[in-house]
Amino acid sequence: DSAACTSAAADSAMGDWSILDWAKASGTGMIGHAALLAATPWVADRLQPGSSLVKMGVDGILSTGVVASVGRDASRNLAVTNVALVTSYAGLGLLMNAYERHTGRAVPRSIGWLLVATGLVGALVNPRSSFWLLLPQGALIVHRAWADDEVEGKPAPTGSAAARLT
């Protein structure tokens, strides 16, 4: 019975968001990043046909039948990796938005630091990638979590780096 009440309360909280609330939510940037990752191969191929390895991989998978069609082909492996990344980013964005709606709190700062670290390493290794987009997204999450702590009267984090990440 209490589970039904909790579920009903969560559904109610999720349904009360306006378009502006959705736009300001932490996860919306991740969903936008996922959309950009999904669209980029097709836009690149339109601008310069044959230039998108991901699109060539998807075309190759579809033309030979989906089951066991990847093998060792680099473009097909890249296409599968891109689909997994798009799905992961979109899922993380939806989860972050649901967390904020359900709890009324900012996403934990550890998620923000993880995004900053991933964006920094990814951008250094591959500067022409969209990893750069994770830096402002992660920084925004860290900022919101600290602002949330200030509103609740929690002291600012001090001490070791590990203490600041939680």
Description:
- By secondary structure, the chain is mainly alpha-helical.
- The protein is 75% helix and 0% strand.
- It has helices at residues 2-15, 19-24, 26-47, 53-64, 74-103, 109-125, 134-151, 161-165.
- The model is unreliable at 1-14 and 159-166 (pLDDT under 50).
In round numbers, the mean pLDDT is: 77
Give the overall shape.
elongated
What is the count of β-strands? 0
Number of helices: 8
Cα Rg: 20 Å
Structural class: mainly alpha
What kind of sheet is the major sheet?
A: none
Unreliable sequence segments: 1-14, 159-166
Helices and strands, in order, run as HHHHHHHH
Annotate the secondary structure layout.
Layout (H helix, E strand, L loop, with lengths): L1 H14 L3 H6 L1 H22 L5 H12 L9 H30 L5 H17 L8 H18 L9 H5 L1
Helix pairs in contact: 3-5, 3-7, 4-5, 6-7
